[in-house]
């Protein structure tokens, strides 16, 4: 009798322990296995890379570390866009349909910058040259949704290009009905202070509301962005948005949209050589214009021998830009997060102020716009306005060359960012 009581007492004492063990076992079943979250994240990144990096017929290892994939043009990422499901890739228009210019260009001690990977090989005809995106590229962005996209920018009124989110500019702009624009841009390698900072020099083709969510923008230029590319080299880039940077668009070919036609020019690839203070000056010419027949917006990189059409933004991507642009902007942009409580020391352009002039300050020269007759016209100096949010950090100074140097309307711009004299 006594032993029976003892057995019952032991069983009642064990019940809480058994219950605790059962709960613990259930939790183990519900909790992810060690490394599962990392594996899931890796799986998500790999799936994203599989969407971006299309199968190549040839891959070229560049001396700068890039891998350039030669992708069949009909399999490129752009055609994954739902608006381009039935899109037929446009044949590059002949030279006779490209905007003609009356300007006479002279080098004036500047030389052409090109792309580093050209020293290692070339892509065959029928393919497009695409910089391969790596897992490290994606992981630096911190999230798949942020990768390859500018942060949303508030644009209250023109020409306040992008106030908010720490974006600062030194730009020139003109407001009129235009169908494209061209400029020659000096190429530099500005120092970037923060890992998530960038410095770029570009042109903007704009239409739509500056204080709403329907702004359309086409952008092209060079940029230094350690977060996007993993290094501090200047690289050719493109960007587009049809909703004021809300949900549409991206850099380069990191989302569907921009249709590439070139096997010689890789968007996102590094540019070399670059300018140096007091040394040789290297520049590149960009032209964006609207095809008067099909309405697509074409990008040309370089001029004369070696230059060529890169590709186009299909008209289907846009609302306002399906007709024409209402503003063109040229200039520099940086990000100032003020992470340490002071202004960033990220440089714009050469890192020197505009007053230092040729050989020391960065420049845009031969500013032109495309008119309704598909002709390039030099922009009169009095039609150009300038803007710098904080001229003590970055500034801009416009000028006009009367023809002896062949620069037409041009401007110097840039600066060092943080400095004790004018940018605390």
From TrEMBL:
Superkingdom, taxonomy of origin: Eukaryota
Neprosin PEP catalytic domain segment(s): 161-424
Residues annotated as signal peptide: 1-38
Pfam families, per the entry: Neprosin, Neprosin_AP
Entry protein name: Neprosin PEP catalytic domain-containing protein
Keywords: Signal
Listed PANTHER family: PROTEIN, PUTATIVE (DUF239)-RELATED, PROTEIN, PUTATIVE (DUF239)-RELATED-RELATED
Classification of source organism: Eukaryota, Viridiplantae, Streptophyta, Embryophyta, Tracheophyta
Ranges in a coiled coil: none
